[in-house]
Design goal:
- The chain has 18 helices and 26 strands.
- By secondary structure, it is α/β, with parallel strands linked by helices.
- A 6-stranded parallel sheet has the order 2-9-1-10-11-12, with helices on both faces.
- A hairpin with a 2-residue loop joins strand 23 and strand 24.
């Protein structure tokens, strides 16, 4: 049976997901067969597994850090917020309904517990170590009796718990003490250590507080982790609040991503953001839009509602004005649907509306459907024009997650899907405006394809009259370097010997090049 360690937080967004990824890489580099696990995740950033299931982006990232293929057992329950305090419930990779918070927490989540237990048992049979991530805080009194993500999971797995606090936001010591005070005695006993995360200061000055914390709680501080600019894919869109746009420097290409209220899979743009010579900004109003070199409409979990928001904010008018002056626009998934002429919802899959007019920038009609497409895909570029023309025939990879089908009214598709999962297919994808300056696709992760991204950026630079710039970014290799760098830093600031002892591991974690 696998050994387990669980990370719980004093609140959401304390850095549990990133620390879990670091631990997955630390165990992996120490020679353990390791897997991540989060019983219940609430996030709009998700991805597809090789067998076509949907799971949270954080657990996908953690699986890659662990050196294994992602699978839905690693995140058996995924909640994707839609609108009006409702969420789509994904169970073992497939949608099973849309529920309000009262209905979900009142009884439905209890019906899911057997699936959580089974998913964990499957992983525990196949792996040596499981890194478990909790959700929110274990001390949310109003939900505690019926939760399926924190202490109940720790008890099921027999996992010691490391309680994580974010010191950068302030009040970390009080949050730790308060959380422990609100736990039941048997739950408090499960907490085997404390982690102070996102520290920016002088450790010598902090030491008296750490000593006090250990005396007060009787729990050891296993590590003080510095504030990390890790650059790994983020799970929560709260990070976009911190991504304030900066002025575009001379020689830079400016890309504006519309920050929709229900923006989904914004990790689509990580590769663009990492490129030298690119200023990628998230904007919410027409004043902030400015005059970018490229506008991107991202995915959305509430496409029609976000389209109405776009109109109310004056962004539709601003985008069309820029289009009239030659600014290119790209739509991904929900953003692609918005660019079309019409979005129909005859079965009221998303809202009570029968449909809504799109921006009319692509000759496409979308119809929402109750079945959801979740696939890893391969395909090739078929479109023409200044952006896709030079890439015709290029092989690309990505994934689909959508509940609508879009139909070309006229014109040509942008891509041809040749494989879904392990199955060969021959399916047109996306659409292209007659001048080739506007295009859309259902392929998430399209920008992760290095040759595709490099050529599009080269075209944008040429249109601006900027000198050509050789891109050296290999996105996949860069991801691996970031995993290793993250693990190295975390290992240096974490007591790995004590962690191994807490978990009862039979092989040491130190001595693998990461430091102790």
């Amino acid at each position: 049976m696998a050994r387990a360690i669980m990370l719980q937080g004093t609140s959401s967004n304390v850095g549990k997901s990133v620390l879990a990824a670091a631990l997955c890489r630390i165990f992996y580099r120490a020679g353990y067969r390791v897997a991540p696990f989060k019983s219940q995740n609430m996030a709009l950033n998700s991805g597809a597994t090789p067998d076509g299931g949907e799971m949270g982006r954080a657990q996908l990232v953690q699986a890659y850090a662990a050196g294994v293929q992602p699978r839905v057992e690693m995140n058996p329950v995924l909640l994707k917020p839609t609108a009006h305090a409702r969420s789509q419930v994904i169970l073992l990779g497939r949608p099973v309904g849309n529920l309000g918070a009262r209905e979900y927490h009142g009884h439905f989540n209890q019906e899911l517990w057997q699936h959580v237990e089974a998913a964990y048992a499957t992983l525990a049979r196949e792996f040596e170590v499981i890194v478990i991530e909790g959700a929110g805080s274990p001390a949310e009194i109003n939900l505690k009796a019926r939760e399926i993500a924190n202490m109940r999971v720790a008890k099921m797995a027999g996992a010691p718990v490391l309680l994580v606090a974010d010191i950068d936001r302030g009040g970390a010591l009080a949050a730790i003490v308060g959380t422990l005070e609100l736990l039941d005695p048997d739950e408090r006993e499960l907490v085997a250590g404390l982690i102070i995360n996102k520290f920016r200061g002088d450790l010598d000055l902090l030491q008296p507080a750490l000593d006090f914390l250990e005396r007060k709680t009787g729990k050891p501080v296993l590590g003080v982790i510095p504030f990390l600019a890790h650059g790994l894919p983020e799970e929560d869109s709260v990070v976009l609040e911190q991504a304030a746009g900066r002025p575009t420097a001379a020689g830079e290409v400016e890309i504006a991503v519309i920050k929709l209220p229900c923006i989904a899979n914004f990790t689509d743009f990580d590769a663009l953001e990492r490129e030298d010579g690119v200023n990628l900004r998230y904007v919410e109003d027409k004043e902030a839009l400015g005059q970018p070199d490229l506008i991107i409409l991202p995915g959305s979990k509430n496409t029609m509602g976000d389209l109405l928001w776009l109109r109310q904010r004056g962004l539709e008018e601003a985008i069309k004005d820029l289009v009239g002056r030659g600014t290119p626009v790209v739509g991904i998934c929900g953003g692609y649907q918005m660019l079309g002429r019409e979005i129909a919802d005859p079965g009221h899959v998303e809202t009570d509306r029968d449909g809504i007019a799109g921006l009319g920038l692509l000759p496409v009609r979308t119809v929402f459907q109750p079945t959801k497409a979740t696939n890893l895909v391969q395909g090739r570029v078929t479109g023409t024009g200044p952006f896709l023309g030079p890439l015709q025939g290029l092989e690309v990879k990505g994934y689909e997650i959508h509940m609508g089908a879009s139909y070309l009214v006229e014109g040509q598709p942008a891509f041809k899907i040749t494989r879904r999962g392990n199955n060969p297919v021959d399916i047109d994808d996306g659409a292209l405006s007659p001048d080739g300056l506007i295009w859309g696709t259902y392929i998430h992760g399209i920008w992760d394809n290095d040759p595709f991204r490099h050529q599009v950026l080269a075209t944008l630079r040429a249109r601006r009259g900027l000198p050509a710039r050789e891109s050296g970014l290999d996105f996949a290799a860069d991801q691996e370097r970031r995993f290793d760098a993250l693990a190295t830093v975390v290992a240096r600031h974490l007591d790995l010997k004590r962690l191994a002892a807490i978990m009862g591991l039979d092989r040491p974690l130190a001595g693998d090049g990461l430091g102790a």
